Amino acid sequence: MSSENCLEWLYIFLKGMAMGAADAVPGVSGGTIALITGIYERFIHAITSVGFEDIIEVLDGFRTLDFSVIVQKFEEADGRFLMVLGAGILTAILTVLQLVHYLLSNYAVLTYGFFFGLIAASVIALYQKIEVSELQSVLAAVTGFILSFMASGYASTSMGHGLPVIFVAGVVAICAMVLPGISGSLLLIILGQYEYMVGALSKFFDSLLSGNSLIESSVPVITFSSGAVVGVLTVSHVVKWALENYREMALVFLVSLVAGALRAPIVEIGKVLANTDATWVSVMPEFASAALAGFAAVLVLDYKAGVVEI
What we know:
It comes from Candidatus Nanohalobium constans. By secondary structure, the protein is an all-alpha fold. The chain has helices spanning 6-23, 30-36, 40-48, 52-64, 67-76, 79-106, 108-127, 135-158, 163-173, 175-178, 184-190, 194-210, 214-233, 235-245, 247-260, 263-274, 280-305.
């Protein structure tokens, strides 16, 4: 049983906020923040300790009113830790995404330019921290880059925002909480779902405050969250297994996914320009300045605190 006092729980909540804020924008991942703040191993152990069998036993406990089973499973999964950390993550995501929604609505080129810089700097920092010593790892790098590069163009224009797509996006995005170095928001950009989910979460948050259209606005959020739960119960275990058994190949593949994703912000800006009279030539100064700012931010933080790890 956890023995944290109130101050220690506050620290865990704040660490959750840092994780949520990191994963709300493409760049440094929530998993990286968990690693930096010293809770990564506890976090991974907690989320991978829950299986479908445990959920079935908990549901059966509710059905039979056997609360001892529920309490036992809650303690086994470090439930207090996950609840407090999750509250911090959710608080930060809702807060930061309100700002991101405003920026994407009013300063899309600057925002995506900043994201481009964040991703580019993360790629450089990450490649410096991995080794490629085998042919299999080279093939993994090429495969990861091509898959991400192709998906960054195709998904943004062809996948749409149906509930099955949103569910899969939730499954994929939650992996970023498991992987230091891979941002959940970056994965959503690759899938063409980032801007949509930012808007959906903003609308849901507004509905919570006003009470209007709450059911309608909650559908994509619940669908995405359901995918995240399934991702924790399935994909996170696969990723953990891959890192434990094929670490070099897995890391090279994952970092190459980030590199290929540099196409995604460019595609998104192209979609914005298609609906305006602006051209790439006219927006290049603001795009370049924002990209340099994002690039510098990550490199400075990494130099000072080693924030990009994998």
